[in-house]
Amino acid sequence: MDLRLLLIATLSAVLGGSWAQQEGSECIKANAQSCGECIQVAETCGWCAAEFLTEGQSKSARCDDLESLKKRNCAVTTIENPRGSVNINKNKPVTNRNKDVAEKLKPEQITQIQPQKLTLTLRSGEPQTFELKFKRAEDYPIDLYYLMDLSFSMKDDLENVKNLGTDLMREMQEITSDFRIGFGSFVEKTVMPYISTTPARLINPCTGNQNCTSPFSYKNVLNLTDKGDEFNRLVSQQQISGNLDSPEGGFDAIMQVAVCENQIGWRNVTRLLVFSTDAGFHFAGDGKLGGIVLPNDGRCHLENNMYTMSHYYDYPSIAHLVQKLSDHNIQTIFAVTEEFQPVYKELKNLIPKSAVGTLSSNSSNVIKLIIDAYNSLSSEVILENGRLPDGVSMNYKSICKNGVEGTGDNGRKCSNISIGDEVSFKISIESKKCPSHGKAEIIKIKPLGFTEEVEVVLNFICNCQCAAKGKPNSEMCHEGNGTFECGSCKCNDGRIGRLCECSKDEVRTEDLDANCRKDNGTDICSNTGDCVCGTCECKKREIPTEIYTGKYCECDNFNCDRSNNKLCGGHGRCDCRKCVCDANYTGSACDCSLETATCLAKNGQICNGRGTCDCGSCKCTNPKFQGPTCEICPTCPGVCAEHKDCVQCRGFEAGEKKDTCQDECNYFQLIKVKDRDKLPQPTDQSFPLTHCKERDANDCWFYYTYAIRNETKEVYVVETLECPAGPDIIPIVAGVVAGIVLIGLALLLIWKLLMIIHDRREFAKFEKEKMNAKWDTVRNPIYKSPINQFQNPSYGNKGASL
């Protein structure tokens, strides 16, 4: 059982060590043939450009982790290990702006994000981190476009919107001094089944006496302007229209508002789109009902401020809208009635930087709704980035107000930001590989809903600096068949080998293979390598520290004897399957130490003088002794008992060895002391000391110490014996008698006490019964008086008595 446990423990240790070492084998496993290939494997990989390879090693062995290269005696100055960097190219500070200042800044002069341009140099596997700062500027310009559903159900809403321009201008003055407003309307696609296409209905789609305008898809009524009264005038001229189905064509209108920047008049400022309706929406695929199958192209099709391609292109999809709204930095506010709140809240979750407000039945609360939604949108900043190149990833970490940190998806945004608050984002960009074209890439990072953006230029480290010094068709490579760079030959196409000495077509021939057989044997490269161009290139192991070497790959550094589960006992190195031991070690597994320090006993002797020191451990000459220094003897008496008779005969001329004392007991030096206080104490000595207390045949005690100092055995003995005194009879007898008398008196007193207690209890009982007795004064019915009365019958008749 013990053997099995030991075997399991050994295998676990070996396998555990193997796995631990395999973690660092990524560089070796890559089999990189050049410095450029090596540094793309991982950031921990380096390329040794010096001549340090041993016979049989391929040039891919130059690629290894940095620590391994150093251990393999590659000079630090010859290790190619380029690192990435971050350079800030444009770093204009964020703007501190106040709307009360007379001098106003143009929108392009305001900076809310810093820095504005960076250049990152990326090495595969090495992330580069930089920090972005965002500060919400005060009095930032706002463009607001009001897009309204003019289907018949919105008739009363139109009346309340007619004065929206001036009223909203007045309210927005509290937020910004630079505000512009525009207006547009929508109904539905002008084909069946969305509207009625009868001539009369095309002129007036409403029923009864209602006067409605012809149906249309989307109309840009007013470009963005700072004239609120102009907004009121044009909106007052608008008429309600009508359609057949309940969902409206609002998505067509949103798409045109987003992409027709010039026609709408959008500036590079905060862009708000208010979408007001009391119905649902059509989206991509619904156009098939009207025979429209072409997907929306996402382009501007406004002619005379009217959308002219509604009958030709399908409704846009939600994802298409999200893309266009984001590309044009438009934040959407959905002002919808209570009935459709759930639908538009779900839509809000799909469109970043959007908000939903509850519109009253007649739109009377539209101004409050817009201001509340704007405050909600502007208090949150969300970063987004453009398409990343293949193999590049980004991670965000936000440091928001009051030091609140966010990671993952929350790392892109900060909420509850007030005007003047500054937040920051730490962004890490990492590349897993070099792009195939090898050119720089540009990505853009911007806060959603803002026109400002950060340009990040990505340069990729795809080769080592030493490669620039390479010599094409170098003489160092066989007949100039390669470029000598970074200490090795980079072969031309069609050539292979350490020095590019072979053509790929000539790799396997009998003549070349013969050069790879040791002693004309059958094994090519000892079955641990490949024959390349007549030269053995040894195979690589999973564990990078284990290597095959030699002309025929016949050597290795891991198949040597082991001790304590360690190669060469941990006291040597494995060289061609033989242990080369460190100093003071010997043996086939370097497991035999030549040091004697481990054999020294406490008394300074090697193995207590009872054995020899062999390979750092004691070999006891007498089998009855055991222990690391032969100090244990299970069958031997103790030190005190062992030397008792000799100490007694030499110190007191008594004991069993009295007659043979001179012959058997002269092995120690005896020193007599007057009392026990004069005996040596353990704390006073630098050598082992034993205190003994023994008794002789007369029951007398004698005290001594035994010690070995400088190979001399010393015994200190107290010269007087401690004998016990005889017993004093009189005190003993007197004590016994006194004890018996005292015990008798005590017993009498106890008996007397118990009798008194008993009598008192009986008397108390009698008194109690006496008190409880009640004597009856009535005549006892069974009582017979002892007196009998008789009356003389003749008494009273005296005559008769005679």
From TrEMBL:
It comes from the Eukaryota. Disulfide bonds join 27-464, 35-45, 38-74, 48-63, 206-212, 260-300, 434-692, 462-466, 477-489, 486-525, 491-500, 502-516, 531-536, 533-568, 538-553, 555-560, 574-579, 576-607, 581-590, 592-599, 613-618, 615-661, 620-630, 633-636, 640-649, 646-723, 665-700. One of its GO terms (biological process) is cell-cell adhesion. The keyword Nuclease does not apply. GO terms for cellular component: cell surface; focal adhesion; integrin complex; lamellipodium; melanosome; ruffle membrane; synapse. Keywords: Calcium, Cell adhesion, Cell junction, Cell membrane, Cell projection, Disulfide bond, EGF-like domain, Glycoprotein, Integrin, Magnesium, Membrane, Metal-binding, Myogenesis, Phosphoprotein, Receptor, Repeat, Signal, Transmembrane, Transmembrane helix. It is found in: Cell membrane; Cell projection, Invadopodium membrane; Cell projection, Lamellipodium; Cell projection, Ruffle membrane. Residues 752-797 form the Integrin beta subunit cytoplasmic domain. Residues 34-464 form the Integrin beta subunit VWA domain. Pfam families: EGF_2 (PF07974), EGF_integrin (PF23105), I-EGF_1 (PF18372), Integrin_b_cyt (PF08725), Integrin_B_tail (PF07965), Integrin_beta (PF00362). Residues 640-728 form the Integrin beta subunit tail domain. Belongs to the integrin beta chain family. This is Integrin beta. The lineage of its organism: Eukaryota, Metazoa, Chordata, Craniata, Vertebrata. The gene is LOC117746128.
